[in-house]
Amino acid sequence: MKKNHTVSLCVFFLLLLGAVSVNADDLMDKAKGLFKPLPAKAPDPENNTVTPEKVALGKMLFFEPRLSRSGLISCNSCHNLGMGGDDNQSTSVGHRWQKGPRNAPTVLNAVFNIDQFWDGRADDLKAQAKGPVQAGVEMANTPARVEETLNSLPAYQKKFAAAFPNAKQAVSFDNMAKAIEAYEATLLTPDSRFDQFLNGDSGALNQKEKRGLALFINKGCVACHSGVNVGGNSYQVFGAVEKPGEAVRPSADKGRYAVTKNKSDEYVFRVAPLRNIALTAPYFHSGVVWSLGEAVNIMAKTQLGLVLSEDENAAVVAFLNTLTGDQPEVTYPILPPENAGTPKPEL
Amino acid sequence: MKKNHTVSLCVFFLLLLGAVSVNADDLMDKAKGLFKPLPAKAPDPENNTVTPEKVALGKMLFFEPRLSRSGLISCNSCHNLGMGGDDNQSTSVGHRWQKGPRNAPTVLNAVFNIDQFWDGRADDLKAQAKGPVQAGVEMANTPARVEETLNSLPAYQKKFAAAFPNAKQAVSFDNMAKAIEAYEATLLTPDSRFDQFLNGDSGALNQKEKRGLALFINKGCVACHSGVNVGGNSYQVFGAVEKPGEAVRPSADKGRYAVTKNKSDEYVFRVAPLRNIALTAPYFHSGVVWSLGEAVNIMAKTQLGLVLSEDENAAVVAFLNTLTGDQPEVTYPILPPENAGTPKPEL
Hints:
The structure is a homodimer. Chain A is mainly alpha-helical.
């Protein structure tokens, strides 16, 4: 009897194990069909071959506060590579302490997004890079003044010439943007536990995280948050099922409508990519939600018309935490010293 | 005749070579008596043993914008390690874009200065580190809020415990300052060409630079700018011989007088250390002079009552350029993500 009992227990556990393992395999197969592991290297951006020379220059420019009128604000100020590629602010603070209109999106893995900015108004990172440099509330500079600054510094002249060997005028605002794009295309965060899972390591996620992933798929989050960046690859109205609260979706910011002037694009935004989402609070374009759990509940409600149980919410959050990858290892660049020809900071 | 002529020419050049080489030896001997090459490692600051754990923590804190009330300003904002350890501003810009009263001194090699700040009001770097964090025009934070921030982040709790294994409360404002001091004590710039010269390599300086060094010694600059940091080791009245212009030495800033209340300390400042001086324009505590040549002329006039020829000025500037050392190679630290308990940015 005891033996029989043991045997049947064993059978039971084996069956259970089989069921779990079949489920896990199913889940992995499903996930592999919906997401893609982050590659070690991004494909070259359009019209911009990534070379070591461009990347080296782009890194300097990314950390170069003299791209701003004040000499105080660099790309890294709002896209801090030590803080998940953003600034942990509701909306960014720029020239003369002005507050920008939207939350700074992460620069990490941004090369995989369909377009850039929350409203997708830039086709790619080289177009994006030109925006903040000129925006009055951000770096408040002009292309001419940027070029004057860069031309005044022999070290930059040399590095632009090396990065753009065929250009008549290597130092240019356009090439600044191209170099920054080339650098940003290297800012990937591979080998998250979710990537390990997608690459076949079933043990990379624990049961709670797997349950979160299953919920993420089965509840419908994946309808928008899919692909290599777990989002970032489509546009959706924020409030597809239910209008979010005014603080979360301020009426005045109509999102992509400002770009296309199509009525149907009112309150449409680029779907947020969710890689490293645990590092990039606060959330949404308004940046008013600091808790990932709260953000998940808002999404479920406004986009899917669902109310998640506490347990479901915790599982989804646990899954989202597995999207944090290896952060880029960056050697802080040494920038060339100014000289008599370098435009002075304007505060 | 031709042969004889050649021979006498050779003798002439040999004599000349001998003369130059004797002079060079003299100069090197003199220089060795007045300056010290930068060591590879600084001695431990008082009451603060430098350990790898403290340095690792201190580096994170040095780059940590959440030490400021706004979450925007870190030590590195004004002491940018990619820009000679300062901010290339006349006077620094802090919380709510307020302008500070004095030019930010470089953090590089600062551990060798007699005291910290232009007026020497901090005895050492751990005392210094507490100043800007609390100053209303700089980071505008409070010790309690800093501790709340650090305590909210498990990664910091762990790192403080490792850095201060015997402390009852490892996470504290005092220990923050100690960790930053430990890190800053590693921010040295060894192996400048001047160091190579001091270490016996006569060829490390060219003739013009050697002439500049000789002038620097013989004209009397060395009376104040000596030692390992070529300055930074004494206090002197700015305007010993002749009062500088109002812009360069604003009447309202009486320097060390504010610290000691001694009449004799009016317009007394800590002598500027000159290492990496070519990287740290603008100059003086007022930060209004952008040209190193102009700064040299002002010093000669106001401190020594001398007018340098253009040629002399150029030689001294050439010498000062040899004080630029190897800049620290810094791997940009990854900072812990905020959570519900972390104080939010206050703008």
